[in-house]
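Posting here for the record, re: iron/sulfur cluster.
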Amino acid sequence: MDLNQLDERLKADCEACASLCCVALAFDKSPVFPFDKASGEACRNLEDCGKCRIHADLATTGYMGCVQFHCNGAGPIVTRDLFSGSSWQTQPHLLRPMMEAFWVFLRLQEQVLLLRHAANLPLPESKQKELHAFLEELCPEDGWSWDKFEALDHARVSARVKDWLASLRDVLA
Ligand code: SF4
Ligand code: SF4
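Prediction output follows.
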């Protein structure tokens, strides 16, 4: 995949997302979030339309955790590719499957980001080939679908990517 296209896939396009971080993530009351929120509980600041009612004031009202959070494109992948733009807000039965997919893609997209950084390194050809094979697996050219998601052994591919990233220490030493 073209690296510019990959960068697009890593963007947190909140307009194309069913506000998944605002419901799926648990927060503890802390200097970066002002109250406890359980996973699966919609944030009290989330409006029915999916917008954050305090978006412009997050940094000054104790929500630095929201400012600093980045899903690396997991939210749009789940909402747009897997659930065709549907939202748990209008179809509550989608909440659990959307959250479960979101947790998986949060981890996968974090690894895609690391692979993207690795693409800038002076890697030998064999490692470059392995890198591009991972990217093909984790970033299907024509996007994700529910079928592709179900067919992916995400735990196994995550473990392989982790090992591969660790192997770069020896290559680059
Ligand atoms: S999950 Fe990502 S794209 Fe969705 S609202 Fe949160 S930051 Fe934005
Ligand atoms: S404060 Fe806004 S951005 Fe943060 S979790 Fe709540 S609705 Fe989402």
